[in-house]
């Protein structure tokens, strides 16, 4: 259902107004996705319902296959660049936005109970940076992780920028939030997960780690790392580095660890 | 030598004026480094000469150990935040800038000839994104790579943002530019490097790759990847991913591959 918008004050596109500020305050039951690649990933996920699209006029043709696959009552608003930028509050270079409904977040025990006998889960503790959370979801999707758990301090994976950095991975891998890092750990233990905490002071070396069928990888923020009480209760693993320069980005770290835990293509996780 | 600057038009801090625009046009024999961590890395590298510092007044005390170690004739300019932001042209949250002289870039054959019998080199082809190049240098430093080679399309590792993202890694790992990707490949072959080209269509799997004493890892941009003629002349290697989501960031990819090639802490590259 194509609807041309010529006035940036049009009430029908209320959900797109001042996107950047709304990102920051959270948007209840909705989120905003941006760009063609992300939109195509979103359209394939059954747990999110697309409420509407807002497209720059020159993007309509290249996306027609996609919005023709949407239910007929989903409005596809179109506007010229000037009107679109004025609605959103800054230049939307990609010219493609979608508003979708969030999926309900299941209790952690329920999410873990659903997973197969062999499963790989990522747990994030205190990760407040959207680039890092987006990057971790991209890696989680690429290496077939089954779920991501978030502690209360970790930022929202459905923040627009996090989705963009994840190239849609934040829409692919199921996630839920736990009441605390401790709750997360307890739920993983109860579901028989072998919990691996990455830390520069880890006792084992990643490359030598043999994984269990149910493996969970815990990651903390660069700098503070994972809390000491959590490290005391888990299997700690380090990634050895060149002595003089001991610094890895946490998203990169997740990629290295997930590549190893997923078996680098040798494990049955990957049908080859 | 502490020098208080109260006027943003003061000619002595010319090198700091409108940093962002100057980043883009290149700055001949100089570069700008930003932030405490990067500045401390810079001060340890003998191949770069620090010409001056510009510090927010409230940062002077915490850095006094550092600028006392500099030669006595290196000016340390200080300014309040308003003057500093006005000199630079945007808010410098970190309150710490340095201007340093670039090191000469040796011819590629000379750089490679200097390396030890067992060596790890990274070759970048068409990487125009400063975040990615910065991220790759961070990983190259973390995993002890001996050198990075750049083709003409790859961006400047000493661009302010690339240095920042590299957390100083761009100042640690020696690099040089080659006349073309072909020249790079030929130089590596002549120096007896086993050249490994990462590609989604690679014939070998990274996790199964046995490295030679002299190994070079070639990376291309996300999307286009490495040119076909280069792939045809090298050993191609892939990182298997979950079939439904085949997307890794190139800096993350470099981290995964360098972790493997460096032996994950088991190889003699790391004195443990």
TrEMBL record, chains A, B:
SUPFAM superfamilies cross-referenced by the UniProt entry: alpha/beta knot, L30e-like
Residues annotated as domain tRNA/rRNA methyltransferase SpoU type: 120-259
Family annotation (Pfam families): SpoU_methylase
GO biological process: methylation; RNA processing
InterPro entries noted in UniProt: Alpha/beta_knot_MTases, Ribosomal_eL30-like_sf, rRNA_Methyltransferase, SpoU_MeTrfase, tRNA_m1G_MTases_N
The UniProt record lists the keyword Methyltransferase: yes
Entry keyword annotation includes Transmembrane helix: no
Gene3D superfamilies: 3.30.1330.30, 3.40.1280.10
GO molecular function: RNA binding; RNA methyltransferase activity
Record key words, sorted: Methyltransferase, Transferase
Protein's recorded name: RNA methyltransferase
Source organism: Microvirga alba
